[in-house]
Amino acid sequence: MLDSYFCAPKTLRRLRAGPSGPYIDDFAASLEHDGYAHASAVRYLRAAAHLGCFVHLRGGTWADAGAGTLEAFGRHFPRCRCPRSNGGATGYHASFGAKLFHRHLVRLGVCNGLAVADAERVQPALVTAFTDWLRVHRGASDATLRQYSRGAGELIDELGADAKCWTAQSVRDFLLRRAAKCGLATTQHLITSLRAFLRYVSFAGESRDELALAIPAVASWRLSRLPRCLSDDELGRLIAACDGTTRGRLRDRAIVLLLSRLGLRAGDVARLRLGDIDWRNGILRVTGKGRYEVGLPLPQDVGDALLAYLARGPAGGDSDHVFMRSRAPFTPFAHGDGVSSVVKHALQRAGVKSPAKGAHLLRHTAATQMLRSGVPLDQIGLVLRHRSIDMSAYYAKVDVALLRGVAQPWPGARP
To answer: Are 235 and 221 in contact (CB under 8 A)?
Structure first.
């Protein structure tokens, strides 16, 4: 397989004779399978050979290569004098190629899959039990578990592992010290995670007091502003910016229509599987927060966009995910950030200026369009899968014409 990228016999002998030699042909095959461009694969193969030379000169073995080795390799470029590396790729391409090769060796069982940094970061038993409880009983996603465990771990690092020694004052002081070092949004996320963790600590009998009540609230008036959404003209320009016949543009159009017509979350789109689309009955099954599954009607234009995209045969190997990355490796979106990135780039192509750039902008747009079309708030809540009508009431403020009719005159104001 290496012969597909290099033709010079001297180069082939050098690459196959080095420490990376026994694995480099298989690595080349994996790069081709994942769809990397020829020029990129050449750089990554050179980086793989360079990494092997670097590990050998340090007197190490592949079994010892981990996160620390990759970091040291990144610092090695400015003073590289490896006799058999031939310079290799430098900068970003070498660093990325080395990471790809290391992952490949981990899959083969040559390198230890546990990075050094991860081995040193062992979660306390109480945090592990907390995350297990969230996963089993609340259906929390991996991203939520990471966020909640981060706040819980910081609290334990600060106050100690024995929750019975914690006091309301010490917990409150910890939060205030952390809040002074970060922004409002980060503080609010920390408050949410700490309250959930401390409620679990009390439930598990690890604390004598209800310490969740000691976490103060941070003033944030969520209902003080109108929902950030697009006008009909801006939405039309956004959809038009996804016109085209390439696989990437067809994918972007299907994603934008799903978000703007059905108000899906970015994570809902990223997790969408082929089996979730009931073509015969025109139903889309969506599994949202807490593994809450609903069936939503599939509009005609959304179904047409999905069919056009799937007809191009999205490159995804054996995966049954609907949406894939448009660049190598052609894998499903790891999380909703990739879907938000699609919306962000589409907004840039359309020349739409908006204070919000991600997928949630189109969820707000879908809700406001339904409200302006006369859909009742309770039905909007069903489509958006809100657990409380108060969440749906957030969008009532966009119906300015109705509000103007029920608004009372300000006391003392001139008629």
So the answer is: no
